[in-house]
């Protein structure tokens, strides 16, 4: 009854779920935890030479001590623009200028701000879960369509649906673990 020509592209599903995880890691990296990290500046873009440019492409980003990030801006004319971009980024950091070096002292987070950040981390994780579930739905739809087209027996449909569900469960668990780790990191004083 069923052809053997149907094979669900689980590599594609994994790739798309990996994409959701990578996006979550990037969002988590931008969350301030009270410790200095060069990755916290990744989302900040500077208007350099008529186009928006990541900070790490206009200067050297360093973390000389646990509560300080420095940016050594290569072009003196961009120092003001880099400073402005950081002020307007919503990171809540007040840049201090020292020639072409911009120093970013990372203030201690208070309890209320930590709780807010854990909620934001939770929202990021929920977006990642939704993305993974959307990939799951696509996989399930492909197996249903193949079954309805007669390319898949009922047993094979159950097999592929189980594969998709196991993959989904694995990625949801990874997201939950990443969230737990990030929340512990944020709440750490």
Automatic annotation (TrEMBL):
CDD domains: RRF. One of its GO terms (molecular function) is ribosomal large subunit binding. GO terms for cellular component: cytosol. It is found in: Cytoplasm. It comes from the Bacteria. Signal peptide: none annotated. Its main location: cytoplasm. Keywords: Cytoplasm, Protein biosynthesis. GO terms for biological process: cytoplasmic translational termination. InterPro entries: Ribosome_recyc_fac, Ribosome_recyc_fac_dom, RRF_sf. Residues 24-187 form the Ribosome recycling factor domain. Belongs to the RRF family. HAMAP family: RRF (MF_00040). Responsible for the release of ribosomes from messenger RNA at the termination of protein biosynthesis. May increase the efficiency of translation by recycling ribosomes from one round of translation to another. This is Ribosome-recycling factor. It comes from Primorskyibacter sedentarius. The gene is frr.
């Amino acid at each position: 009854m069923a052809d053997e020509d149907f094979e669900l592209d689980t590599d594609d599903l994994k790739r798309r779920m990996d994409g959701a995880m990578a996006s979550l890691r990037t969002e988590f990296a931008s969350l301030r935890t009270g410790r200095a990290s060069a990755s916290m500046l990744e989302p900040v873009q500077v208007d350099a030479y008529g186009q928006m440019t990541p900070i790490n492409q206009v200067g050297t980003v360093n973390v000389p001590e646990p509560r300080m990030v420095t940016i050594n801006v290569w072009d003196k004319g961009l120092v003001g623009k880099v400073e402005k971009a950081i002020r307007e980024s919503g990171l809540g950091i007040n840049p201090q200028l020292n020639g072409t070096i911009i120093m970013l002292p990372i203030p201690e987070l208070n309890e209320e701000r930590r709780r807010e950040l854990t909620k934001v981390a939770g929202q990021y994780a929920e977006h990642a879960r939704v993305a993974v579930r959307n990939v799951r739905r696509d996989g399930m739809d492909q197996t249903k369509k193949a079954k309805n087209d007669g390319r898949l027996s009922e047993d094979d449909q159950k097999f592929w649906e189980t594969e998709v569900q196991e993959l989904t469960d694995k990625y949801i668990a990874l997201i939950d673990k990443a969230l737990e780790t990030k929340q512990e990191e944020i709440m750490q004083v």
